[in-house]
């Protein structure tokens, strides 16, 4: 039984990147899809595909630069046992702006810099560097 599908997704991406695998497949869910699209827009993933079928899946293609994965670290912040909520001024600047925080706001999931610009706080899902 899996209690935290988001942590599982982040771990799969981290493991695939460290093993230099270019592709991985995940079970589909709306929240995983939104996180994957944010990672794609942030330049951490090459492509995100929705694979239809009896069991919908998400196919992720990891971006590599000079043989190294663009994703160095994915860290889950808010967990099922300890939710972490932040105001818009408290959203962290990961690696002085070179990384990215992902925030779940009242207007949907978005990168931390976008939530800060819109002055929206919310649940701090994870940090990417």
UniProtKB/TrEMBL annotation:
GO terms for biological process: translation. Pfam families: Ribosomal_S8 (PF00410). SUPFAM superfamilies: Ribosomal protein S8. Keywords: Ribonucleoprotein, Ribosomal protein, RNA-binding, rRNA-binding. One of its GO terms (cellular component) is cytoplasm. One of its GO terms (molecular function) is rRNA binding. Gene3D superfamilies: 3.30.1370.30, 3.30.1490.10. Coiled coil: none annotated. InterPro entries: Ribosomal_uS8, Ribosomal_uS8_CS, Ribosomal_uS8_sf. Part of the 30S ribosomal subunit. Contacts proteins S5 and S12. Belongs to the universal ribosomal protein uS8 family. HAMAP family: Ribosomal_uS8_B. One of the primary rRNA binding proteins, it binds directly to 16S rRNA central domain where it helps coordinate assembly of the platform of the 30S subunit. PANTHER family: 40S RIBOSOMAL PROTEIN S15A. This is Small ribosomal subunit protein uS8. The lineage of its organism: Bacteria, Candidatus Uhriibacteriota.
